[in-house]
Each structure stands twice: as structure tokens, then as C-alpha cells.
Amino acid sequence: MNVFIIYFLIYAIIGTAIAVASKRVGIKSARDYYIGGRKIGGILAGATYAATTYSAFMMIGLVGMAYSTGVGTLGFELSYLLSTVAILSTVGYEIWRISKERQWISPSQMLGDLYGSIFLSKFIALLYIFAMIPYIAAQIQGLGVIFQIGGMSYESGVVAAAVIVALWIAIAGMWSVATTDLYQAILMLGGGILFLYVVISMILPFGGSLRAIEVLASSGYLGIMPFWSFPVFLSYTLPWIFFAITNPQVISRLFIQRDEKSYKMSVTFFAAFGLLYTLLAVMIGLFARYLAINGIIPSGLGGNYVTPAILSKLSAIAAGFIGISIIAAAISTADGIILSVSSAIFKDLLGLKDKKVELIATIDVVLTVVASILAYLHPAYIVDLSVMTSLLLLPLAPVTIAGIAFKNKLGKFSRASSLASIISGVTIGVYGLYANGAGRIFTSMLCGLPTSLWVLLISCLVIVIGISLDY
């Protein structure tokens, strides 16, 4: 039997067993299903936050970015990590604290409640569907590609991904997702460490890591390369800096910790995991460039093809385990997104009562099937919308920060401007995509400024005007 399939079956069986074991906590309400009844401890909460946040992008996209653009990639990714820890320690903590008082179970419900607008919560729920389903599809597409590398068909990867995603969510909601995320976080780190080890082994015949550092430095890859101009760096980092308060799958993880100690522990766990995983991905990418300089892999690879090129040079055993760790990253992200979008549909679009648990699985399955069909069909716009996800959700950042900061002082003008802020920001983002295309959205400028900066500036201006009128 194919080594990769053996690995995958072991991975799926262990994960399913963990998910089934988590069901013992009992799921009696939507609150239990979507946010674990606010009873999840620090390590588990930190692991599910980390595994959901760090998708297959890290060991594929970020590796390729470091290979292509050098150590500037580290600055880009560390900007995200540091800003996220800062947000989690301030605005995030307030979200956790207030969520216990107001019993939020969905991120769109949170904003609707803060501004006193049911229409706002429904609109944001629709935005989540539009922005996140293509992103889920992109994760499932990634699994299809990994299956192809492992000697299987793309279609079998899509089907396997759909089954696991739906199953691990349906078994016990947040509990089964969080426990399998801890398992997958361990796999992700293990796969990353093995990946770095085998890459270092590959460069040993060419002088080892010290020689690699010398060559990379002399080639400019350990300095700020032309790609990372300040406008481009700003364009890439702005959506990521506010990721913690714009993306539903991570906002919902601010509702789950059982107490303050657990919350602080979850932030610490995430920070440690994020730093290690980021360093692994960037180092792999830089050493991959050294392999290209020595002719082991092609020098002109596109970013998403660097990891497959390296894996093709490895033994089936090593490549299979690394491939499974990337699958774990994709599955954990897809699970987290579907669970959070499902909560928005359940609570805000359909307005269902907390006890209607039997309807939740149907919502989850429909979301999984739709995303899987899109992944199978490979429509071109999925790539565009996946790239656009961060821009489409960026207008939620100023609205969220303002809502938390002025939660008891928001009136009719704030309510109206919150919706106008989001619509104006999304419109600018969509225009940027139309004008520049997905491939250039973060490197092209609008009137000399990055599209993401325009989105943020206009969204901020609109919400500030509304709040000032209420004062």
C-alpha cells in the first residue's frame, strides 16, 4: 500500500478517536456546540487558536515567499504575530470578558449586539459566507494537491478532506474541533521540524548551514530585497495585523476560555507556537533558495511549488509525514472556519434558538459540501476570492475596535456608520481586485497607496464620523 495512504489512514483514525472521546462532555445546546459552553482550558484554547490560524499557507505559501523574497518574509510574518499578541492582550481580552456577560456565540452576533443592530449582524454573516467559503475551498484544494504529491488523485483528496472536516465538526462541535486541533498542532510542529531537518541534511554536501548563510547573505536574501518596499510591506501586513479581530474563526475562539487564567494561558501558548512555526517556515524557505542556487531544485519556481519540489526529492516516509502535517494545518483551518460561519448562520441569519442543536449539523454539512464542490470544480474566481478574504474582512477591524471601546455610548449615527464603514471598505477592496487582479492586489497601488491602506483609512473615517456625531 502507498506509504502516504498509510500515514493518512493513521492520521484520520487517531483524529476521529480523539473527536469521539471529546463527545463525553455532552452537547446540549448551541452554546455547548459552538463555543464549548465557555469551559475550555488554556492549553486546548491556545492550541485550537494556533492550529486554526496557521493554515497550510505556512509550509507552502510562506516557505515559497521566503524562497522568493528572502528574510523580509520573516518581518512580514512576525508583524502579524506581535500585533496579534498585542490585540489578544487588549481588545481580545475585552471581547472575552464582555462575551461572558452578553452570551455571544457568533462574531456577527457580537457586532450586532454592540451596535444594537440585527441588520448589521445579518449583513456581516452574509459577508462571512461570501468571503470564507472560497477560502475553505482553497484549503480543500490544498489537500487535493498534497494527495497528488502522495501518488493519489486530486479528487480523492477533495473527498477525503470533505469527510474529515464534516465528521470532526459534527461529532462534538467546538470540543471535537479543539481536541483534534491540539493533535493537529502537534503534527504541524513535528512536520515542520522534520521538514527543516531534511532540508538541512540536503545542504550538508554544499557546505552546511554556515556556508548557506554566507551565500544567502552575499546574494541579498538575508537583507531587505527590492520586493519588500515599504508600500508593499504595508500592503501585505495591514490585513494580517488585524486578523485577530476580523476573521470569524479566530474571533469565536475568544469566547471559549473558562476563566481569566485560561485566557492568558491560551495567548501564551499561541505566541510560543506561532514564533516557532514561523521560524521553521522561513528557515526552510531560505535554505530552499540555497538548494536552488546549487541546482538541487529549480531556481525559478513559483511560491506554491517550492515545497512540492523539495518533497519530491525526499523518501516516501519523510515526504509522507510532512505532507500529513500540512494536511493537518489545512483541516484545522477549514474546521474552524466552518464552525464559525455556521454559528453566524444559525444565530444571525436563521435566528434559531439555542436548543435547536439538531439543525446545526445540517448547516455544517451544507457548508462543507458547497466548499468541496467549489474545490473540485476549480473555478478561477476561487483563487481571486481567497486572496481577497483578508481585504474583504479588513473593514471589520475599525468597527470592532470602536464597538468595544465605545460599547456603552453608541447611538443611531454609530449604528448607521458601522454598516457604511464595512460597505465602503469592501467596495474599495473589490475595486482593487478588479483593477489589479488577485496576483497583484498586494503589490499594486491605488493613487500611490496600497489597497489595504485605503480600505482601512476609509473604513476608519466613516466609523469615526458616526461616533463623533453621537457625541
UniProtKB/TrEMBL annotation:
InterPro entries: Na/Glc_symporter_sf, Na/solute_symporter, Sodium:Solute_Symporter. GO terms for cellular component: plasma membrane. Its main location: membrane. GO terms for molecular function: symporter activity. The chain crosses the membrane at residues 6-22, 43-66, 78-96, 117-137, 157-178, 185-207, 227-246, 267-290, 310-338, 359-379, 385-406, 418-435, 441-469. It is found in: Cell membrane. It comes from the Archaea. It holds the Pfam family SSF. It is a multi-pass membrane protein. Belongs to the sodium:solute symporter (SSF) (TC 2.A.21) family. This is Pantothenate permease (PanF-3). It comes from Fervidicoccus fontis (strain DSM 19380 / JCM 18336 / VKM B-2539 / Kam940). The lineage of its organism: Archaea, Thermoproteota, Thermoprotei, Fervidicoccales, Fervidicoccaceae.
